[in-house]
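In the previous lecture we treated proteins in isolation. Real proteins rarely work alone, and many bind small molecules. This record shows how such a complex is specified: first the sequence, then the SMILES for S-adenosylmethionine.
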Amino acid sequence: MGKKNKKTPKKKALTPEEDAKRIAKLTKRGQSGCVEVRGSVIHGRGVYATRDTEPEEHVIEYVGNFIDKEESERRAWALFAESEKSGGAAVYIFNVSKKWDLDGDVEWNPARLINHSCDPNCEAIQVKKRIYINATRPIKRDEEITFDYGFSADSYVDHPCLCGSPKCLGYIVGKDYLKKFRKLQKKAKKAAAEALEG
Ligand SMILES: C[S@@+](CC[C@H](N)C(=O)[O-])C[C@H]1O[C@@H](n2cnc3c(N)ncnc32)[C@H](O)[C@@H]1O
Ligand SMILES: [Zn+2]
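The predicted 3D structure, ligand included, written as C-alpha cells:
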C-alpha cells in the first residue's frame, strides 16, 4: 500500500463577511484588561501594565493568522531580509503545531508590540493552539511588559539591546544561547586585540 499524502490541508476560503467576523473575534481575544500600548523607553511602542499583575497571570493573548509551514518559511525569510537592511529584529511568527504557525504581524494584535528584555517579566506560553503572554513575576502598574525574544547568538551584533536592565547583555540574545554568545564575544574581542597589535 502506498503512503497517504500527508500534505497540509488547505484552509477553506472564507467569504469577506466570514473573514470580518473571524478578525472581530480575534481582535476581542487580543485585547487585555491589564495592559495598554504606550510609547516605550526601550524602543518605539511597547505594552505597559495598567494594574499590578500576579505571576502566571495571563497578561494578553498573542493573536494572529494561522499559516502553513511553507508560507511561514517564506515570511520568515522576508523578515530576515528586511532586518538585514534595517538592523531591526522583528519576530512575529510562533510555531504552534507540526502543520501550522501563528503570524502575529497584524494591527489587531497589540501583543506584537511587546519589546524584548534581558530580564523579562513575562513569557510566551502555548495552550493548545493559543499563545498567551504570562507574567513570570509580580508586575507593577506602569511597568513595561517584556519577554525574551529567544534570538540565537549567531548574528548578535545586528541586534543591540536597549532594555536598560542591570542584567542587559548589550544584545538581544535568548537565554538558551548565552553560552554560545559568550564564546562568540570572546572570539570577537581576541580578533579585535590581534588587529590592534597589527
Ligand atoms: C516585535 S517589534 C516590538 C515593537 C516595537 N517596539 C515597535 O514599536 O514596533 C520588534 C522591534 O522592536 C525592537 N526592539 C524590541 N526589543 C528591543 C530591545 N530590547 N532593544 C532594542 N530594540 C528592541 C527591535 O529592533 C524590533 O525592530
Ligand atoms: Zn537587554
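Summary for your notes: The longest strand covers residues 122-127. The chain has a mean pLDDT of 91.
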